[in-house]
Amino acid sequence: MRSYSAWSIRAQLVVLFLIILSLGGLGAWRIHLHGVELDGASHHLVNEQLPSLAQVHRLQFEVVSIEKLLMALRHQGLTPSLLQSLTQARLRVLDMVSTGALERHSPVLVRLLEEGAGRLDELLALYGEGLSQGERLESVFSATLSVSERVQGELSSMSEQLMLSGQSYPDTVRALNQQAMEMAMGANLALWLLVGAVIYLLRLYTKEHRRSLRLTSFAKRNPDPVMASNLNLEVEYANPAALSLCRLLGLSGPATLLEQIKPDAQQLIQQGDELLEREQEVGNRTLLVRMVLLKSLSQVQFHLKDISKARRVEKNMEHQVNHDFLTGLPNRRQFERDLKFWLKESQHDVVVGMLHLDRFQRVTAAIGFEGGDSVLKGATELLRNQLNKEADPDAQLSLYRFESTRFAMLWVTPFKRTRVKALAERIRRGFASPVVCVRTNRRFHFTLSQGFAATGLSERDVDSLVRDADCAAGRAAAQGGDRLCIHTPEQGDMERRRVQLEQDLRYALERNQLQVYYQKQCNHHGQIVGAEALLRWQHPELGLVPPDEFIGLAEQTGLILDIGEWVLEQACLQVCSWNGQGGEMGVAVNISARQLMDSKFVERVESVIQRTGVDPEMVEFELTESMMMENLERGKEVMLRLKALGICFAIDDFGTGYSSLAHLSQLPFDVLKIDYSFVRHLPRDPYYCKITKAVLSLANTLGLTVVAEGVEYAEQQRWLARHGCDLMQGYLHGKPMPIVEFGKVLEVEPLAH
Predict the structure, then answer these.
(1) Which one of 51, 316, 621, 622 has the fewest beta carbons within 10 angstroms of its own beta carbon?
(2) Is the C-alpha dihedral spanning 677, 683, 688, 694 positive or negative?
(3) Do 42 and 182 sit in the same domain of this protein?
(4) Helix (H, G, I), strand (E, B) or coil at 324
């Protein structure tokens, strides 16, 4: 609601009264003008038009009389009585002409009258000479009558004009009266509107005045401190609560308290505002001061409230929002705020560290979450104490709890790899001491995966630095933990490439970017026995993507299930095509752990076999040792079900992982593939020769077919053939090829029978 001051209402009332006076004066002046105009019209009618009309009528009468006398003169001759009548009539006409009134209305009429008088004198002179007949007399007589007729016509015209002019007078009077009435009605309406406005403003003034009085009286009964001063800021009143506040603050009185807030009060008065609110620190208290300017009373009121407790609560809440409740360290929110500040303000490099406690899950698994919190607090103290030892006035170094068992470190200093490595090593040594759980008195040793990023190596923004440092820490953890990784631009490119590959891989199959390549498997005579189906990705922007780059992504995202089924179907269709031409060649397909552990994997394989019509005995699944050891029982169950369909199994990369004769003997493998890491040392390295001989002997004992991978030289093939290796696969016989090229090879090279 709009607020009105008494001063503004008084000013508006004065303006309204001036408007009323002005309208009254204007109305009186307009009425006066109407009266003057009406008086002028009446004067003209009475003093000019009516006398002139009467004179015209008398002249008409005299002219008619003279004409009658002239006619009598013609018939009777000049007699003394007739001469006297004509003479008198002539004198009366000349008398009316001599007044000058006729000359103002019609100078032509005056000349005609004078001419007629001259003709009449001439006529009487002729009669006085005794002439009663003759041409001259007749001529003068005719001329006199002619003048009389013209005088009559002029008088008639003049009479009509005067009559018409007289008839317009009532219209003029009515028009003036109508204007006067309209003006009076308008003035009356305006007056009522102004009176209504005056009444409204008087009510506002009364209401404002009462409000001011209430404000004045409210201060006396207000439990909060209230003071009042004049416009010179001299204290006029202070209620009991204000006096108590002064005693609490140790001030001598209200005047001393007013001095503390005087600058703001002066600003209020100078700007003419009605209200100003400020927080003021007085002593050890925070006061909320609300200043109200009452112009009508020439007074400033000060309403004070002690909000010290509320501000302490707010600061405590702000601390809780920006700090971790368990460790007391600044949290992620505060970390990002500080990092943004230093990126903007600091001229030095900004180094961001992400520190991950390795394998902390073993703690909660051993002593529960409550004990884990206790251990985490102890680990935090170790880290905090170590960083406190690194404190440097010239280099800001802060520790934050980012989330869970991840800590963030902010270091504002010129970046040098040697300094970062030295700091990381000192932090690592700080964790040499065990962390003791107070509840269980158990000791735990920890290691850290440390990742660092700096503004010189990453983009200078919060998201990039945090991302790069966290990715570096993730790489350190992936390498077994207790390591340091410093982000480099090349690693950033790799991470971005990995993200792009993960996103694009989701559409690679439907966009026909995936291809199946085939690599020959040959016996020691060089005859083709089978082929291994190998997946390739022809990326439209990145070119041919190596399998070791995207196969892992496909497994992590679960895309390997659909992609693996598609590869199997393509390989089965190709086997059917090859064998339909009279050959007999099988195909080996790599199976991932994610596929093998899928609950619907067997159903997927059965569906592919039914759709393609392939002979299951022509299909071989290659599995790695490590994949089988992850869930031996589940893997064995799936293998037996697939074995019942007729599918063969090969153990891939044998000897590089979790090789176990006990496990190997339990699983239904048909083929053993010797890894390239052994084959490449043959036959020059005696150590690898012994190992390979042992593997070949073992496979022969178990009745397994042996395939050597990575055969590149003829001497390797001869050695392997001499010691009982069944099949060879490698660049010596051919690289992996697209289906078109592989088909051309089959046209010229023989198949084993």
Answers:
(1) 316
(2) positive
(3) yes
(4) coil
> What token pair was written down for 356?
């991950």
For residues 212-221, b (16+ Cβ closer than 10 Å) or e, as one string? beebeeebee
| 231 phi/psi in degrees, rounded to 5 | -70, -10
Q: Give mean pLDDT, residues 508-523.
A: 90
653 and 684 in a single domain? The answer is yes
Strand order, beta sheet including 406-412 = 396-403, 406-412, 350-357, 448-454, 484-486
Is residue 358 domain-shared with residue 278, that is, in the same domain?
no
- Residue 16's pLDDT is 73
Q: What is the DSSP letter of 545?
A: E
For residue 506, is pLDDT > 80?
Answer: yes
Phi, psi torsion values for 445, nearest 5 degrees: -100, 140
Kindly state whether residue 317 falls inside one of the protein's structural domains: no
Do residues 727 and 522 touch, judged by C-beta distance below 8 A?
Answer: yes
Structure tokens at 301: 């009121």
Structure tokens at 98: 């001599």
Cβ(682)–Cβ(719) under 8 Å?
yes
What global pTM score does this model have?
0.54
87 part of a folded domain? yes
SS3 of 111-174: HHHHHHHHHHHHHHHHHHCCCCCCHHHHHHHHHHHHHHHHHHHHHHHHHHHHHHHHHHHHHHHH
Structure tokens belonging to residue 497? 């490439």
Q: Please, how many CA atoms are within 13 Å of residue 165, restricted to the half-sphere of its CB?
A: 17
**List of E strands, 171-274:** 226-230, 235-238
> Distance (Å, rounded) from C-alpha 708 to C-alpha 716?
10
Do 116 and 151 form a contact (C-beta atoms < 8 A)? yes
CATH number at residue 607: 3.20.20.450
Q: What is the CATH number of the domain that holds 260?
A: 3.30.450.20
In a domain, 470, yes or no: yes
Give Rg (Cα) of the chain: 63
591 & 730 share domain: yes
Tell me the torsion sign for CA atoms 539, 543, 546, 550. Answer: negative
Q: Determine the distance from the C-alpha atom of residue 492 to the mean position of all C-alpha atoms in its chain, rounded to a whole number.
A: 31
- pLDDT for 160-177, tens place per residue? 776 776 666 666 667 767
Phi, then psi, of 628 in degrees rounded to 5 = -70, -35
Place of tokens 């008084």: 10
Q: Rounded to the nearest 10 degrees, what angle do helices 135-221 and 6-44 cross at?
A: 170
Residues 611 and 482 in one domain: no
Alpha carbons 704 and 710: distance in angstroms, whole number: 19
Residue 2 in this model has a pLDDT that exceeds 50: no
Residue 526 region, left (φ>0) first, then alpha (ψ -120 to 50), else beta? left
Query: Could you give the C-alpha distances from 552 to 472, 497, 546, 661, 664, in angstroms and in order?
Result: 19, 14, 11, 28, 25
Burial 159-193 (b: 16+ CB within 10 A, else e): bebbeeeeeebeeeeeebeeebeeeeeebeeeeee
- Pair 731, 680: CB distance under 8 Å: no
How confident is the model over 655-679, as pLDDT tens digits?
Answer: 665 555 666 677 888 999 998 889 9
633 or 684, higher pLDDT: 684
Return the ∠ at Cα 63 (arms to 58 and 64), rounded to 5°.
Answer: 100
Q: Which residues is 294 bridged to in the sheet?
A: 299
Structure confidence at residue 15 as a pLDDT band (50, 70, 90): confident
Asked if residue 17 and residue 117 are part of one domain, the reply reads yes
pLDDT surpasses 90 at 518: yes
The answer as to whether 35 is a domain residue is yes
Domain boundary among 281, 312, 343: 312
Claim to verify: residue 306 and residue 339 sit in the same structural domain: no
Question: What are the tokens at 361?
Answer: 């899950």
Q: How many domains does the chain have?
A: 4
Domain of 132, in residue numbers: 6-197
Cβ–Cβ under 8 Å, residues 723 and 693:
yes
